[in-house]
Amino acid sequence: MLSYPAPIKKTKIIATLGPSSSSYETIKEMVRAGADGFRINFSYGSPHEWSRLARLVLEVEEELEIILSLVGDLQGPNPRIGFLSEPMCLKRGELVELALADSQESVGEKKVVPVPLKSFFEVTERGDVIIMADGQTILEVLEREDHTITARVVEPGCIRSRNSVGIRGKVIPMPRVTEKDLSDIEFAVQHEFSHLMVSYVESAEHVSEIREILSKRGKQDISVIAKIESRKGVERVDSIITEARGVVVARGDLGKHFSLEEIPSIQKSIASKLRAKGKIAVLATQLLTSMLNSPTPTRSEVADIYNAVLEGFDALMLTNETAIGRYPIDAVKWLSRVIVEAERHYTRREELLPEPKGIPERFVLGLVKLALSLNAKLLVFSFTGRTAELVAQYRPTRVYFVGTPSASVARRVKMLWGSVPLIVEAQDYRSGIDLTRKKLLETGMVTSGEVLIEAYSVTGDREYLIRIYRCA
């Protein structure tokens, strides 16, 4: 039995599944390397393939007796290119044509990129900069005629079916929640997903709409994570944070709307706002891009990850590195290595944490401080996961344990900073605490002589309990 992934870390790793990581063994080895959850990007593949991947994650979870977050990523109002029969590599200076079409048509040696979105062509003008594949490929528009664009390659790269496409500084009109999103939400509801990421969120109303859809399906417990990928999203991030359970800082798409030198300050600012509100902060895109083709990262990538940990991100998300890269397991291993090293130098700064407003917040802040003063491990039992969420936002210096009888709550808790969820069959809080402690001792996560701070709070704020327990 694997107690929890080695090495032990508080910052979580989300790995995106794709062609390079679609086998049972690869998923299992990524968990052993330190992956805490897996993302399925609904912009690629089919429900049949997503179902297979979700099933594999749950099977690995069962074999290793460990909890894994399962994250669905809605395409949202995110413009993408159509279907390509094979990857298209574009060289600097060559001409390429973009055409209104669902898929690539044979036109001799001419390179044609299908874009199945009429409004994309309506807003494009000569001189515009088109950015594809999370900012890795850049084109300059030379001509536009109705539904055809001729462009020159400024930054070369290889593009694939369903890669993102955008126009720097422009918004391409699209409905907020698409028919595809509705279908994909239904899929997530039926396949035990713990989190839903919502792409191109530019308003709090967008998040509210997704939450309402989930609520009507009886799945209001699925955590909604808003992806900030545009100028409007950044400008309205404060109101978006209020509605969402967390936010993804999607640096690749932000590069379509901001100059590169602006991205680090945007990243740091959003992370700070999320910490102050006690919300989940996720950093994504190009963490280990060099590892698409190399078994080791660059020094600048290591420094980037190190700084993200010190900025207080709850989770770091690998995208292409594990979905289509040649070294998905190595990418997770390296990310784990850097996180562990960075956390050795992480300083808990109370002035950056949320101000406790009521009894629940003050109770949990007291727990964290008590555990710190006694150098004890913290154990909480929760039916809903709310107490675990509060613990995470006050940043205990050691990992903390969360007992719950609900698999869905455990998977949701798994993404929280520092959490180690365990499923225990308990009908009440007191037996839940006892059974969780027993499981910790059986698995070796807690040993004889160690001190535990045990706690729970009853839903409705009727009862709070703290117990100091020395394990025999």
From TrEMBL:
GO MF annotations in UniProt: ATP binding; kinase activity; magnesium ion binding; potassium ion binding; pyruvate kinase activity
Keywords: ATP-binding, Glycolysis, Kinase, Magnesium, Metal-binding, Nucleotide-binding, Pyruvate, Transferase
Pfam family, one: PK
Pathway stated in the Swiss-Prot or TrEMBL entry: Carbohydrate degradation; glycolysis; pyruvate from D-glyceraldehyde 3-phosphate: step 5/5
UniProt KW Oxidoreductase keyword: no
Domain Pyruvate kinase barrel: 9-332
InterPro entries attached to this UniProt entry: Pyr_Knase, Pyrv/PenolPyrv_kinase-like_dom, Pyrv_kinase-like_dom_sf, Pyrv_Knase-like_insert_dom_sf, Pyrv_Knase_brl, Pyrv_Knase_C, Pyrv_Knase_C_sf, Pyrv_Knase_insert_dom_sf
Known EC number: 2.7.1.40
Similarity comment: family membership: Belongs to the pyruvate kinase family.
UniProt name for this protein: Pyruvate kinase
Annotated organism of origin: Fervidicoccus fontis
Species classification: Archaea, Thermoproteota, Thermoprotei, Fervidicoccales, Fervidicoccaceae
